[in-house]
Amino acid sequence: MIRCVRMWTGGDGDSLFEEGWIDLSSGIRGDSIGETVPVVELSFQETRSGGSYEWHQDPVPRFVITLSGTLEFQTESGATFTIRPGDILLAQDNTGSGHKWRLIGDDPWRRASVSLERSRPQLQAKQHGGTPMSTPVSENPESESPDVVLIGAGIMSATLGTVLKELEPTLNVVLFETLQDCAQESSEAWNNAGTGHAANCELNYTPRLPDGSIDISTALKVNTEFDLSRQLWSHLVTKGAIGDPYAFIESCPHMSFVWGDDNVTFLHDRYKAMSAHHCYHGMEYSDHHGEIAQWVPLVMEGREADQPIAATRMITGTDVDYGSLTHLLVSQLQAQPGFSLHYKHKVTDLDQLADGRWKVTVKDLQTKHKRTVTAKFVFIGAGGGGLELLQKSGIPEAHGYGGFPVSGIWLRCDVDEVSARHHAKVYGKAAEGSPPMSVPHLDTRIISGKRSLLFGPYAGFSSKFLKHGHYTDLFRSIEPSNVVPMLDVARQDWGLAEYLIGQVLQTGSHQFKVLEQFYPEAQRQDWREAVAGQRVQIIKPGPHHSGSLEFGTEVVGSADNSIVALLGASPGASTAAYVAFETLEKCFAKELADGWRDRLKTIIPTYGIDLTKDADATRETRAKTAALLGLTNV
Ligand SMILES: Cc1cc2nc3c(=O)[nH]c(=O)nc-3n(C[C@H](O)[C@H](O)[C@H](O)COP(=O)(O)OP(=O)(O)OC[C@H]3O[C@@H](n4cnc5c(N)ncnc54)[C@H](O)[C@@H]3O)c2cc1C
What we know:
By secondary structure, this protein is of the alpha+beta class. It contains 15 helices and 33 strands. Among the domains are: 3-115, Jelly Rolls; 189-321 and 423-442 and 559-628, no CATH class. The structure holds flavin-adenine dinucleotide. Residues 151-157, 176-179, 184-187, 191-195, 197, 322, 346-347, 381-383, 385, 389, 408, 457, 466, 532-533, 535, 566, 569, 571-574 line the site of flavin-adenine dinucleotide.
């Protein structure tokens, strides 16, 4: 007999449970056989001994088959039951107060989770009747003079808002978003590649130096910034603010793949430098066709047997659905007092008052009505809209900044037979003269439970700063203070302009040929074009009216630290937590000293520790966050 505990949501919203046995009938060989149950997903998970999970619901009905470990489950009423190896849990309490569990005994919890529905949830903001919810203004009288105004409902504002409310739940935070929902620009799942950038595979982070050595310092910085995001997400999962990490993150090996003798030598030297560092523990290298074919069969089938190739692999890499994550963060913020969100509200102006507060002018795009709110602190997380708002703020620190928009196209394949045969993000080498963000890569994507492949991006030029922006964006951004740095960049970076023009002129068959370098037997009919998000690269003013084109992100703020904007595009969403902490250090130094720092350490246990130097702390945090987020660890 197979013991089964079923949980469901009772009429009062609390979880109930009953203990019983799986119904089995006699089979032909004397076996007992149960009925066939249609299921859609299977995943294996492991939680270290001592693990626990605070109040949560499972997002979809699922069977959880315990392979090892003994657990105590508890419902809101205080009732408890025990699950042991071999027991089946049928979790149908997908709404309401949910349940919590803790491991008892010394064994880890190893389990197979079998979902009856797709496990990526309907985005939470849409669960309430299909329309994302703004907060009615009348319900939040404080929202006219909040402590903090966040502009733009992408991953950056959602992350900073979350961190601020974690540190100080009494803060009054208001978020304005032009569009009708959050994560509709760069943070939308299909608008980016979903790489949990840990600099495992992006070759542009590890240049060869003139002395022949490989510089891995930038890679290490990005690598450990991602550890901060993992810790923040783990904290939210542990406290139940995010129900199920599989809703936004999954393990997906990160690979670099090159061909040609010089590139093979480079990759081998890079592997030697990186694998010697504890941050890249577990990195694998191969220049053997057969072995790489086992890792990524589609990349190898149809490839000439004598082509010199090499690959590295980190099986600890991740695929992240930043759109889903943004929705989850925004939903848990909306559930908190002192937070309000206004969709279809565009911030049109920013003026600093004599007392240092900011007067934020907002236009309701439905009623066309304009109103103002005054806030002590403003975060411009407006993506491509950030530069214009920074210019409107009039702070001297914004002087001379310009933006250079780069659009993108993907090739996307939704054919299950093809996507089922590729499980990796495979990054190649950027073409000569191309910007780092146009490095081609063949990626597994898992979005709303569906597995697809993405290839690209093919860079292009559009004068829009946002996907939903205007073709006049670039021209409106030119002002006397930035025209000289922009012209200087145009002069110096003519190669980039030529590259982008070349990309725009590429025909579909040219684009497909680039894909064939990664996937020689790709079939044209399996792939279609998909438009990626817009990126605005920073043009940064330098000395003597010079300008430079930057490919990173930069937090630009006023001297009094009352306003900051995030400019630039890379490494992007995966380092949102790092950006939030940088903002805290810049603008909330007093609060950090007065107690926030201690609270921050409970959320980010490695806060203040340099993980590039501390191997033990790195191992410990990775093991812990991997267990909580259901990720592969080595
Ligand atoms: C092709 C491509 C691939 C990428 N790949 C990756 C990747 O693999 N991994 C990774 O980590 N990152 C990646 N990125 C980068 C990542 O997508 C961005 O860094 C991140 O999404 C930026 O988030 P954000 O919140 O700053 O901006 P956005 O998500 O763009 O949000 C800004 C929001 O502000 C709103 N807004 C603008 N102006 C106003 C205004 N005046 N008033 C009110 N609201 C306003 C916009 O409507 C928008 O909703 C990629 C980007 C692109 C384009």
